[in-house]
Amino acid sequence: MSQRPQDRFETLAIHAGQEPDPRNGAIMTPVYFTSTYKQDAPAVPRAGYEYSRTSNPTRTALQDNVAALEGGAFGLCFSSGLAATNALLDRLVPGDHVVAGDDLYGGTYRIFRRVFERYGIRFSFVDTTDPAAVAAAIEPATRYVYIETPSNPLLRVSDIAALAKVAHAKDKLLVVDNTFATPFLQQPLALGADLVLHSLTKYLGGHSDVVGGALIGNDAKLRDELAFFQNAVGGTPGPMDAFLVLRGTKTLHLRMERHCSNAMELARWLESRKEVARVIYPGLPSHRQHALAARQMRAFGGMLSFELAAGLEAANKLASSTRLFTLAESLGGVESLIEIPASMTHASIPAPTRRSLGLADGLVRISVGVEHVDDLRADLEAAFAQAR
């Protein structure tokens, strides 16, 4: 579906990239379970499809959909968020350099340090909430400035527009992992970013039943380079994965409204609890970048972190005592999850590095789902009682 100026996000979520099947009028995008396609002549594929690693009609619909949601000219989808990150790094050669945020998802840190550093790619980790620190870290060999905002798990908010100016002044690309915010809350391309990365596993899929990733941008040359690695390396999603994410994006706006309202209410409540030493949520005035988040985002998201005054043992007990909050990795599904990042999603980051950044061993991260907020609060209340 071509995007018209009057199409709002909610309309694009349901219709972008998707038309009723012209053969039979089916409303839902078909799942094309095929590995290969009939060609009209040698090297003359019909409708542009020849092999499903290269392209698949269900994946095309998803790519067009996520591109529209982010306001991009292209979208490329992958088998996971890390497969998307891999394609991004595949463009680099030995000696190239990346300036990255110092508060990153553990899997991103791992692929940077333990995979691509071995091939001569260099990484500098800085506080991306400070544009001057980012500018100072950029070298002639820098290819990307790579940020998460809000970051995982400390929910730091970086000024996308300011960092785009810093990167572009030195002819570098700004890449924004927009997984926590989603395109419903924040659109980095409109703020000057060059590429947006998503783990589709999270909010865009939204139901904890699919793993995927995406890169979205506007530059045609960059799109062709990334598409080459998408095909050559082969980290592409299957058609059923693409279909499941398409199903998820249709309700993204509805789910995000509930995620955000539930998270805000729980953050305020947690801040009032004597057991809690600090709450980290961009929607709270106590958050260091609250004003920036209010300016840059539509709302503040469904993720929050907090520390207990009693430390690690109490945090572990709390996370093991909830009934509705499931102790599990990942985030962004309709159900609420709880985890201890230091021993779970961020265990690949060395403990001294984690602690120096303020990621305490007993930090608790929760992905607030769309259940009734009173039930979620009661669940945490009962867990607090058990953790004493």
Task: Write a structural description.
This protein is of the alpha/beta class. The protein has two domains: 9-249, 3-Layer(aba) Sandwich (Aspartate Aminotransferase, domain 2), CATH 3.40.640; 253-387, Aspartate Aminotransferase, domain 1 (Alpha-Beta Complex). 37% of the residues lie in helices and 16% in strands. It has helices spanning 9-15, 57-70, 81-90, 106-116, 131-137, 160-169, 182-185, 220-233, 239-249, 252-271, 290-296, 312-319, 351-356, 373-387; strands at residues 39-41, 44-45, 74-78, 97-101, 122-126, 142-148, 173-177, 195-199, 213-217, 276-280, 303-308, 326-327, 337-339, 364-367. A seven-stranded mixed sheet has the order 3-9-8-7-6-4-5, sandwiched between helices. A five-stranded mixed sheet has the order 10-11-14-13-12. Helix 1 (9-15) packs antiparallel against helix 2 (57-70) and helix 3 runs parallel beside helix 4 (106-116). The protein is globular and about 70 Å long.
Task: Give structural attributes.
2 domains, about 400 residues, single chain, alpha/beta, 5-stranded mixed beta sheet, 7-stranded mixed beta sheet, about 35% helix, Aspartate Aminotransferase, domain 2
Task: Write a short abstract of this structure.
The chain is an alpha/beta fold. The chain has helices at residues 9-15, 57-70, 81-90, 106-116, 131-137, 160-169, 182-185, 220-233, 239-249, 252-271, 290-296, 312-319, 351-356, 373-387, and strands at residues 39-41, 44-45, 74-78, 97-101, 122-126, 142-148, 173-177, 195-199, 213-217, 276-280, 303-308, 326-327, 337-339, 364-367.
